[in-house]
Every structure is written in structure tokens, then in C-alpha cells.
């Protein structure tokens, strides 16, 4: 058994049919947290980041910062990163391939050391996931970029990076963040056109502002960055995870329950809140909380997963699971990734009536789902099978927990506190 991580033998046992009820506190955003950690490499001074979720990807990212010469300390949900002695320009391939956000060290390394190398990163197999937006952005800023061995290598000339107008072919989230990182230290002004407007991108710009960067327009499709000589340390708190919050709301809706999520920014959640309301769920909220009550059942809805502020691709699979319990024919069109439908086979195995065409899914409901062994095939497909299992009759066994662990902290405890019958067990005897 040596060499096989223990998580490979673990599984969730979920006995469905209980409406979820109660309140749950949201975590810091997984993706935003990863961006803040990469941003900490830009300053030759200590940076403190708070509200980090306890998920596997954060450990990988902190490890990567350490590999590059940063001093990293973590206490609970707070990390202190001191990148004053940043020295290494090459991200180790084992780290690069462990998570998608590893490629975000490229922008900071290029800005600080004039050279950066990273193998094509890992992450969920939800599509081709090219890097052309990142690489074209670095080139536009004056870097040379080449594939050397298994890695992408970017180098600045003697003059360093130069600000310019950078048009992104697609508003890639990580691509925008990488170009933003590089532009903070470029000479002159960079205008990023067709930038990603996701709240996590806007948040990292806020963090960079708190480090002395000059940025305008973040959160919109045109972001202007005036390069500065040097960034300084900061103490920054990660925004709440709108995807995790949406997952809890959808789990509540799928089970006919009533759940409130505390510590969220409802203004970041228009897509999922609008679709829940259209489906007939009752929603209430404050400036920092949202609750859903779906005791009256759900109606079918149609939606498209598109870049922010549209409905998020990361909630496509979770809402598909909830819509198996909605009366009528729901339709979901995936417009961001080209392999988002890994959850479909698993939900079908539980009795869901799903038909696919390209990256679109037709869901006929409501269907009585039954517990059966299923797999989490990526982090959000994992959330979908958990939601389906909570709504199903009988016991569902979920494997592939390494995917769920990448995105959802303390999931078993938090769902148990909402009344779910869920436990995590080890290897089969
Ligand atoms: N794309 C390109 N060229 C590029 C980069 C992306 O064509 O250079 C395309 C992709 O092929 C895809 C689309 O752009 O079709 C969107 O990809 P994007 O680059 O925006 O995604 P990402 O930055 O790789 C982040 C999150 C994802 C989230 C997406 C979209 C991280 C680590 N990942 O990925 O999160 O789905 O933005 O919002 O931040 C997740 O949390 O489960 C997850 C997958």
C-alpha cells in the first residue's frame, strides 16, 4: 500500500432524506486565498493573510512559496509569508502539477527576479485549460516566453517589464491575476482589456493596493495599473467563499430544508440567488448572510454558466444536483469549460434523468434518487454527488475524497451540524 495516500481509501457514507436545517458560517474563499498567497511574493517584506480555509490546496501553495525561498509560518487560519529572501525562479514540478494556482507564481517571480519557470499546472480535469492568456500577457509586457524542457520559462530583458495595453483573448481568472501581478512592478502604465471581473480578482487588486500598488478599474473588464518601484508588506483578510456558500444553499434546497449561511457577501452571489428564487425557494438575507427555505419544493429553471457576474461555472454541478429535485425540465448550458459534465454519470447512477448534448445538460425532475457507490471526479462534481446523496433515499458511498478536500473545509462536521447523516470512514476491510 505504500505510496498510495490514505485518502484514496477513505469514503463518505451519507444516509439521505433529511432536510438540512440550521446555520453555517462561510469559510474564506479557496481561490481568493490562493491568489493572496501568490501575491505575497511581490513584497520584500512580511505579508500576513487571514481567513485561509483549511483545505489541501492551501498547504500545497504555502509549500510552493517555501520552495521558492519565502519564509512561511501558519497558525490556524493565518499565514505570514516573508518573501524578502525570494531566490528560486523555478517552481518544482511536483508542486506545479499539484494545483492549478501554482502558475500564479510566474507573475511575481518575473516582476521580482526577472525570470520565472513553472511546468503546466495541475488542477481539475474540467477542460483543456490552456495558458495562452497568461503567456501572451507576459509577452506584451516585454518578457520572452519559451517552453524549455517540461516548463514554461519567462524572462525580462535588461529593461525589465514595460507597461502597455494588454488585450486578453478570454477573461481568464488566473490569467488576469498573473498579468496584474506582473504589471504592478512594470515601468509605466498597463491597461488590461477584457480582464476577469470575478470578486476574487477584485479582492487581490485590493490587497495589492494595500501593498502600495496603483490600480484602477478592478472588478470591471478594463483594469489600469501604474507600475511602482516596490511593494510593501500588508495584513489582509480573504473574502468569503461565494462558491462554498452557494453549495450549502443548494444542498438545503435539494433536501427541502432551510439553511442560513453567515459571513457572506450576497452581492457576489446574484447568479445562484436569482436561480434559487426562480426555482421557488424562499430567500432572506442581510448584508452579511443569506438563508434559503425550500420546504415548498423546487421548480425547474434554465441557466448558463458564464464568467462573473453571470452564473458561476463552479456552481454548475451543485445546482444540477439540486435541480434533480425540481419539478419540470431544467437546462444548464456550460460556457466556460469544455469538460464540466463529469458529475453526470454519477448522478445517473443514482437515478437522475439527465441528457447531455455538447456541454449542455437537460434535467428532468423531480426524481427519487437512491443511494449507491459514486465518485467525486473533481471538486465541484464532488459537491454535486454529496448534494444528491443528501437528497437520496438510502445510503450513498462517495469515493474520491481528495477532490472534495481541495475545496470544502470540515464538510462532514458542518453538514452533520445541519442535521445530515454523514460520516467519513477509512479503507474497506
Ligand atoms: N482559458 C484560455 N486561455 C488561458 C486560460 C484560460 O482559453 O490562458 C480558457 C479556459 O480554457 C476556460 C476559460 O478560459 O475555458 C476559463 O478559464 P479561467 O482561466 O478563467 O479559469 P482558471 O483561472 O484556470 C479559476 C478557478 C476555477 C474557476 C475558474 C472560472 C482557481 C485555482 N481556479 O480557474 O475554480 O472555475 O477560474 O471562474 O482559481 C474550482 O474552484 O473548482 C475551480 C475550478
Structure overview:
- The protein has 14 helices and 24 strands.
- With 429 residues, the chain is an alpha/beta fold.
- The strands form six sheets. Strands 17, 18, 19, 20 and 21 form a five-stranded mixed sheet that branches. It has a four-stranded mixed sheet with strand order 22-23-1-24. The protein has a four-stranded mixed sheet with strand order 2-14-16-15, covered by helices on one side.
- A hairpin with a 5-residue loop joins β11 and β12.
- α5 runs parallel beside α6, α10 packs parallel to α12 and α11 runs parallel beside α12.
- The chain is globular.
- The chain binds uridine-diphosphate-2(N-acetylglucosaminyl) butyric acid (EPU).
- Uridine-diphosphate-2(N-acetylglucosaminyl) butyric acid binds next to α1, α5, α6 and α12.
Number of helices: 14
Low-confidence spans: pLDDT under 50, at least 5 residues? none
Shape: globular
What's the oligomerization state? Answer: single chain
> Termini separation (Å)?
14 Å
Mean pLDDT level: 95
Helix content: 25-40%
**How many extended strands?**
24
**Structural class designation:** alpha/beta
